[in-house]
Design brief:
The complex is a heterodimer of chains A (113) and B (114).
Chain A (H helix, E strand, L loop, with lengths): L3 E4 L2 E4 L5 E7 L5 E7 L5 E7 L6 E2 L6 E5 L5 E5 L8 E8 L8 E2 L3 E5 L1
Parallel strand pairs in A: 2-11
Antiparallel strand pairs in A: 1-3, 3-8, 4-5, 4-9, 5-6, 7-8, 9-10, 9-11
Chain B lengths: L2 E4 L4 E4 L4 E3 L1 E4 L5 E7 L5 E7 L5 E4 L2 E4 L9 E3 L8 E11 L2 E6 L3 E6 L1
Parallel strand pairs in B: 2-12
Antiparallel strand pairs in B: 1-4, 3-9, 5-6, 5-10, 7-8, 8-9, 10-11, 10-12
Classes of the chains: A mainly beta (113), B mainly beta (114).
């Protein structure tokens, strides 16, 4: 099992460009999450999907959109990138949405110039 | 709202030293508590967890006890190794309605020197 995979590993964008971060899990988990990690800030939840077909905003959703494509895949889209979105992005998944251990991908490092 | 406060790092220890990383929390209801570890260049991995008061989570020589009376979940290890060098995150999980959320502390960088 690969667990949670993310692509790309690293990306440089110019302000105003768009891109989609991909995430897939092969553990048959129902719930998936997107976080961003900034120095000294811990991890902050951007969006989550408690189950296939549902998505909800987390703590910092502005400037992002998500798609739960199927049970395995959960993508994060930046429509018009801003320097404030420079961060490391982590995808995670869990069996269910309630009190379950989350399993994290290796992260995508994004630099917006 | 919910929050997690961890001791500020970085923490630098010699191999075989005793480790404590303090974590206190504020939450409504009955949260579950977690310690996650992030090795350089990797994603977070669950280290241990506790789901109710007085539970002790343990893994790889690390331990933490869920103390409801002091709202704490301090991480300890009796003898650290160089391979324990990483960032450690305390986190709590609460749920209510449609709002499922892991709340993380800011992380504590541990460096263990040989």
């Amino acid at each position: 099992n690969a667990g949670v995979t993310q692509t790309p590993k690293f990306q440089v964008l110019k302000t105003g460009q768009s891109m989609t971060l991909q995430c897939a899990q092969d553990m048959n988990h129902n719930s998936m999450y997107w976080y961003r990690q900034d120095p000294g800030m811990g991890l902050r939840l951007i969006y989550y999907s408690a189950s296939e077909g549902t998505t909800d905003k987390g703590e910092v959703p502005n400037g992002y959109n998500v798609s739960r494509l199927n049970k395995r895949e959960f993508s994060l889209r930046l429509e018009s990138a801003a320097p404030s979105q420079t961060s490391v992005y982590f995808c995670a998944s869990s069996v269910g949405a309630d009190r379950e251990t989350q399993y994290f991908g290796p992260g995508t490092r994004l630099l917006v110039l | 709202g919910n929050s997690v406060t961890q001791m500020e790092g970085p923490v630098t220890l010699s191999e075989e030293a005793f480790l404590t990383i303090n974590c206190t929390y504020t939450a409504t209801g009955y949260p579950s508590l977690f310690w996650y570890v992030q090795y350089p260049g990797e994603g977070l991995q669950l280290l241990l967890k506790a789901t109710k008061a007085d539970d002790k989570g343990s893994n790889k020589g690390f331990e933490a006890t869920y103390r409801k009376e002091t709202t704490s979940f301090h991480l300890e290890k009796g003898s650290v190794q160089v391979s324990d060098s990483a960032v450690y995150f305390c986190a709590l999980w609460t749920s209510g309605g449609s709002n499922y959320k892991l709340t993380f502390g800011k992380g504590t960088l541990l460096t263990v020197n040989p």
